[in-house]
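Retry 2 of 3 after timeout on previous attempt. Resubmitting structure tokens to design endpoint.
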């Protein structure tokens, strides 16, 4: 179950009213620093940008790959645990604008998580410690700790216990 707060709008769709929900200059500032971070080849500098200018929580030794797109309007709602890998071109959203409402939700990515390339994570999601998300997945609900999920929408492939058993075999 995604944990989002819903905000109804009247008249125009919510995206047409975007600057009623988030300040224009905040979006411009975030856009600039997100673009710098997307192309930055230095992981420690990238994490510093995330923490300092975007107010994200990023744990020690986490690696956010090239071209990862974090939420441009509410990056402060994203937290990443320690020693986590987020693959190339992943998108992490903390908002969604719909016709009659917009929704905001924190995204919590645990420690020692592996997120494959080209994954999309929707607002209000928690990914537990030690979980693995297959490349190209769309995460629409929470991922329990230690599990392996994949697909569109992401579905459970292996439980934590099955993953531990597989690791013993290798």
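Retry 2 succeeded. Sequence:
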């Amino acid at each position: 179950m995604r944990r989002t707060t819903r905000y109804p709008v009247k008249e125009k769709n919510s995206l047409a009213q975007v600057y009623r929900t988030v300040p224009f200059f905040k979006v411009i500032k975030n856009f600039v620093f997100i673009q710098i971070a997307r192309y930055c080849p230095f992981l420690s500098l990238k994490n510093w940008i995330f923490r300092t200018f975007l107010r994200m929580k990023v744990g020690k030794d986490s690696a956010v790959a090239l071209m990862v797109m974090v939420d441009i309007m509410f990056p402060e709602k994203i937290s990443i645990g320690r020693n986590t890998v987020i693959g190339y071109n992943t998108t992490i959203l903390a908002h969604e604008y719909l016709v009659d409402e917009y929704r905001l939700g924190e995204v919590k990515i645990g420690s020692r998580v592996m997120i494959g390339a080209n994954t999309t994570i929707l607002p209000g999601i928690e990914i537990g410690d030690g979980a693995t998300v297959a490349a190209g997945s769309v995460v629409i609900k929470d991922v329990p700790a230690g599990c392996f999920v994949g697909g569109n929408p992401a579905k459970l492939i292996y439980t934590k216990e099955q993953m531990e058993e597989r690791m013993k075999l290798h």
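Attempt log closed. The mean pLDDT is 96.
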